């Protein structure tokens, strides 16, 4: 028979192990943005694009561009960045700074993440992961019901 202290310690250890096993490995935002910088060869000029991007959209303006499918972004386990890439990634994270940036898979989605989050901060993660941000903006501006959002 275990003492009450030993039993408590055993139960706490078991509970902590179970909680750790339930949490899947998540790559950091830095790794995701660095993968985009590397894949698309983004440079300092991209920071200028972020600054110039207004995010004021009309339905016609968004429809003028062809909506592409969400690209698959292969992510490394960890980022190996040069000092220049490190500064660029940190600047992008600081300038964009919204939760939808975690789901961006292209430079266009980095730009569109801010107006999408500003206008529709309650989109479900599954929807953000499955659809290109331009398509999400189009559906929201067109007034279609937001399937996958918390209120639907």
Descriptive notes:
By secondary structure, the chain is mainly α. It has one domain. 58% of the residues lie in helices and 0% in strands. The protein is built from 8 helices and no strands. The C terminus is likely disordered.
Structural key phrases:
single chain; mainly alpha; 0% strand; 152 residues
Evaluate the radius of gyration.
Answer: 20 Å
Q: Structural class of the helix and strand makeup?
A: mainly alpha
* Main sheet record: none
| Tally of discrete structural domains | 1
Work out the helix count.
8
Topology of helices and strands:
Layout: H1 4-22, H2 29-40, H3 44-52, H4 59-64, H5 83-96, H6 107-119, H7 125-130, H8 133-141
Question: How would you summarize this macromolecular structure in one to three sentences?
Answer:
By secondary structure, the chain is mainly α. It has eight helices and no strands. The C terminus is likely disordered.
């Amino acid at each position: 028979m275990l003492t009450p202290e030993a039993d408590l310690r055993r139960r706490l250890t078991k509970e902590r192990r179970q909680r750790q096993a339930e949490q899947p490995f998540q790559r950091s935002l830095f790794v995701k943005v660095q993968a985009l910088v590397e894949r698309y060869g983004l440079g300092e000029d991209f920071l200028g694009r972020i600054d110039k991007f207004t995010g004021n959209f009309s339905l016609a303006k968004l429809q003028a561009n062809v909506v592409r499918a969400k690209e698959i972004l292969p992510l490394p386990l960890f980022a190996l960045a040069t000092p220049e890439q490190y500064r660029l990634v940190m600047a992008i994270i600081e300038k964009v700074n919204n939760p939808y940036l975690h789901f961006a898979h292209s430079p266009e989605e980095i730009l569109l993440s801010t107006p999408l989050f500003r206008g529709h901060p309650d989109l479900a993660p599954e929807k953000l992961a499955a659809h290109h941000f331009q398509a999400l903006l189009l559906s929201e501006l067109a007034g279609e019901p937001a399937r996958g959002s918390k209120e639907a």
